[in-house]
TrEMBL record, chain A:
GO terms for molecular function: ATP binding; ATP hydrolysis activity. CDD domains: ABC_NikE_OppD_transporters. It comes from Bradyrhizobium cajani. This is Dipeptide ABC transporter ATP-binding protein. The keyword Nucleotide-binding applies. Involved in beta-(1-->2)glucan export. Transmembrane domains (TMD) form a pore in the inner membrane and the ATP-binding domain (NBD) is responsible for energy generation. One of its GO terms (biological process) is transmembrane transport.
Length: 574, 324
């Protein structure tokens, strides 16, 4: 059956052979093919990366390899075999002997991939019990602790007794990897293992994956982020629309991408491009057909202060009942027409601060002034009229929309009541859609019928609808694919120039913040550890923390030396 | 500043949570007692007249001398506030008044009849849960003829009135097939049909709630994670999904037990079982008000107790929840 593709002479026999894999859902005319004709093979100690954006079929491909593509999936292949075993048409019982023992699988999104009601230790060691690898309670406990140590979870004895929500995102991701490694499988498949992680957690997970590879395991890494895979992958498949558009060794792909889509993906990585430059290829941002009612503001030289925070403090009760300051004496100002980036890892207090700036939470100490007038100290009744000048864009636009409302209604709802007639409101909504590069055909759609990028554009249109002076962007591109992220960043840059709004741009992603901000604040444990002009911060960071963050930043490694330590991913910045 | 925080920490202590629950439970029982008192004195018709009629069995009006004697005996001639105070004091001493008809303390009458009713209600609750869990484990998220049939059966059971079901069960299993006794008394075998009659409706209802959640949880990433470790479909259902799916059902159990207690009263009459049902029906038709209001008070107390148990159970199943 096996059709020999031209391949370099393998030093070791292939562990996994995939030839012309095709996956579809449904039957007959409703059949929808999501993966067409994918072929690859995997040897021990080798890392194959499958790169593509959401909907490219990369996750389905990965799941087909352990027979979990889904109940309605039809999986066909000329050959799909693991170590001599034909995987096509395998019985459920036979699959179960392979899953976990021979092939470990790390699911996308560690935050929801651990059972929230079970203790970490039980979850991590579940495979040991399922496959009868331990004989006693003590042995089980020992093996679990050893696994947690292997993946670098701190205080493994304590963490094993805790529930998933008590662990940080990075720790949960590592615990999930530990559960996949429990039976020392020969292949580890990791689906987006670093997405949604902070830079430092991301660097640790990448180091862990690389270490797994050097132990002789074969690795399949699924990601939308070329910068992430560039550190570990030996061979890369670039997928789009269910097909492989380009394949090659990592060195080939990064030095000499052939396919335009691969180049587009590489260009969309913010850290790979000059600051402030356009990231997306086409002119997605069109100039509006008519002049907006908003004047094109020419900014005065001495920019007035718009938002001024003075010694903000906010305390919350911790899990042990003691009070903990989430924001601890933070002062800064945001000037008109400026983009202020706020960087920090999860738990650094960024979002708590954003809530205080928006006067959604009252500071325990300190105050915020808005346009030179009191803001947080006012009664809500006095604040309401001025709330329109302060907009917000959330990370998850879907959660901030009423799912039953149409796009038209969502945007129209944020328009000032000065726009009186129904027709004028409708016209204005269409103008706004045009401004964010969306067609008016979307007016009657509902949020669930939009793509991730379209949703975030609608959220942006809603945010600019009341002509705000300041827009607080809370992780606005963190949930988006790189190329969509590139488009949204370009759009935000365009709107800033065009409308003269100021952004407070909150993100855990340094490369994104570096790309868009004029000034940057680095937060850690509720305090500001660095504050200054963007170039200054990145060229000459003052605090050790900022230095370590910058060091951990994943960026494209176009020429990777073999066997380098992945914790220090690349020194210096381009 | 710190003072108020210290207060907050104390307030969120589990013992304080427990104390607050007990306190709010007492308030509920007190409100029920007040209601029970109001039922007694606000019902249409003169109470003294009712008592005379109930005791003598006559229906005609009594003489004013007779009425005055009764009024004095029960204290009906005193102001309402004084009566209320005396009533509350009595309750605090565990005295729920005296039956007009039987001339015995209400507390004693209820105490000797309540046990079979509670046994019936709890048995029905357990059986309902058992049926709901077993059917859900096998049918949820599956697309075959059995899952369709059982799902339809659940919907059917959830919509059928229990007394109708009771009659059908009685005719089918007791009269036609003769497997179970028509009148069971209090033997375990006699408990089967009444329990089923009560439980089947609830099992359909629970089944739908649990199945809904079960189907949702089956699609969660952590379930796929477990499968990727090599866990079988049944293992996944039993060890990962069921616990999540049971949570909304547990919340409903408090409400369900209340429904079962009132349902049990009807079923007891249908099956001629001993229990609170017979007593209450007799008391209501003969206007023996102290028994009715005593039952109101007892069920309020039971409700408070049950919802406390439900909350504690929920916290055992879902360790994420702290006592707050």
């Amino acid at each position: 059956m096996s059709q020999g593709r031209p391949q370099p002479v393998p030093q070791q026999p292939d562990l996994l052979t995939v030839d012309s894999l095709r996956v579809s859902f449904g039957r007959g005319i409703a059949e929808n093919t999501v993966v067409r004709s994918i072929s690859f093979s995997l040897r021990p100690g080798q890392c194959l990366a499958i790169v593509g954006e959401s909907g490219s079929g990369k996750s389905v491909t990965a799941r087909s390899l352990i027979g979990l593509a889904g109940r309605y999936a039809n999986v066909h292949a000329r050959q799909l075999s693991f170590g001599g075993t034909d995987l096509i048409g395998l019985s459920d019982r036979a699959w179960r002997r392979i899953r976990g023992t021979e092939i470990g699988f790390v699911l996308q999104d560690a935050l929801v991939s651990l059972d929230p009601l079970r203790r970490i230790g039980k979850e991590v060691g579940e495979g040991l019990i399922l496959h009868g690898a331990v004989s006693s309670r003590e042995e089980f406990a020992q093996r679990v602790i050893a696994l947690l140590k292997l993946v670098g979870v701190p205080e493994p004895e304590t963490k094993a007794e805790q529930l998933p929500h008590q662990l940080s995102g990075g720790q949960r991701q590592r615990a999930l990897i530990a559960s996949a490694l429990a039976l020392d499988p020969r292949i580890l498949i990791a689906d987006e293992p670093t997405t949604a992680l902070d830079v430092t957690a991301q660097a640790h997970v990448l180091a862990l994956l690389e270490e797994t590879k050097t132990r002789g395991k074969a690795l399949i890494l699924i990601s939308h982020d070329l910068a992430v895979v560039s550190h570990v992958a030996d061979e890369i498949l670039v997928m789009r629309g269910g097909e492989v558009v380009e394949r090659g060794t990592a060195a080939q792909i990064f030095r000499d991408p052939r396919h335009p889509y691969t180049r587009q993906l590489l260009d969309a990585v913010p850290s790979g491009r000059p600051r402030g430059s356009r990231l997306s290829p086409s002119t997605i941002v069109r100039s509006p057909k008519q002049q907006m009612q908003l004047p094109l503001q020419s900014l005065p030289k001495s920019r007035p202060i718009l938002l001024e925070a003075t010694s903000l403090v906010k305390r919350f009760k911790g899990p042990d009942g003691t009070l903990r300051a989430a924001v601890d004496g933070v002062s800064f100002e945001l000037r008109s027409g400026e983009t202020l980036g706020i960087v920090g890892e999860s738990g650094s207090g960024k979002s708590t601060m954003a809530r205080m700036l928006l006067a959604l939470d009252e500071p325990d100490e300190g105050a915020v002034q808005f346009a030179g007038r009191p803001w947080t100290t006012l009664a809500e009744r006095e604040r309401r009229a001025r709330r329109r000048s302060l907009s917000i864009i959330y990370q998850d636009p879907l959660g901030s929309f009423d799912p039953r409302w149409t796009v038209g209604r969502i945007i129209s709802d944020s328009l000032s009541s000065d726009v009186e007639t129904r027709r004028k409101r409708q016209e204005r909504v269409i103008e706004l859609l045009d401004l964010v590069g969306l067609s008016k055909a979307l007016l009657d759609r509902r949020p669930l019928e939009l793509s991730g990028g379209q949703r975030q554009r609608v959220a942006i249109a809603r945010a600019i609808a009341p002509n705000p002076a300041v827009i607080v962007c809370d992780e606005p591109v963190s949930a988006l694919d790189v190329s969509v992220q590139a488009q949204v960043l370009d759009l935000l840059g365009y709107l800033k120039d065009h409308l003269g709004v100021s952004y407070l741009f909150i993100s855990h992603d340094l490369s994104v913040v570096r790309h868009i901000s004029d000034r940057v604040i680095v937060m850690r444990r509720g305090r500001i550890v660095d504050n200054g002009a963007t170039d200054e911060i990145f060229r000459n960071p003052q605090s050790e923390y900022t230095k370590s963050l910058i060091a951990a930043m994943p960026r494209l490694v176009r020429d990777r030396r073999i066997g380098h330590s992945a914790t220090i991913l690349e020194e210096g910045i381009a | 500043m710190m003072g108020s925080d210290a207060v907050r920490i104390v307030v969120q202590h589990p013992i304080v949570w427990f104390a607050r629950r007990i306190f709010s439970g007492v308030v509920v029982v007190w409100a029920a007692a007040t209601l029970a008192f109001l039922i007694q004195c606000m019902l249409p018709g003169d109470r003294a007249q009712i008592i005379i009629n109930v005791t003598s069995g006559n229906v005609g009006p009594a003489s004013s001398a007779e009425l005055a004697a009764i009024n004095a005996k029960y204290g009906f001639d005193q102001p309402l506030a004084v009566q209320y105070g005396k009533y509350m004091l009595q309750i605090l001493h565990g005295d729920l008044g005296e039956s007009y008809q039987q001339h015995r303390p209400v507390a004693a009458i209820i105490a000797e009849q309540i046990a079979p009713t509670i046994v019936l209600a709890i048995a029905a609750l357990l059986i309902a849960w058992l049926i709901a869990i077993l059917t859900t484990l096998f049918i949820a998220g599956r697309d075959n003829i059995w899952s369709k049939l059982l799902n339809d059966a659940q919907v059917f059971l959830a919509t059928v009135p229990p007394y109708w079901l009771a009659t059908i069960l009685l005719v089918l299993f007791a009269v036609k097939l003769g497997i179970f006794p028509v009148i069971g008394g209090n033997s375990p075998i006699g408990l089967v049909l009444p329990t089923l009659a009560l439980a089947l409706e609830l099992s359909g209802f629970f089944g739908q709630v649990v199945q809904n959640e079960f189907t949702r949880v089956l699609e969660q990433p952590f379930v796929t994670s477990a499968r990727a470790r090599g866990m079988s479909d049944f293992g996944v259902r039993l060890r990962h999904v069921l616990r999540h799916a049971a949570l909304p059902g547990i919340t409903l159990s408090g409400w369900a037990l209340g429904k079962l207690l009132s349902g049990a009263i009807l079923i007891e009459v249908v099956f001629a079982r001993q229990g609170l049902g017979g007593v209450l029906v007799a008391a209501t038709s003969s206007r023996d008000v102290p028994i009715v209001s005593g039952a109101v008070l007892i069920s309020a107390g039971l409700f408070v107790l049950v919802s406390l148990i439900v909350d504690l159970t929920y916290r055992v199943v879902d360790p994420r929840i702290k006592l707050t």
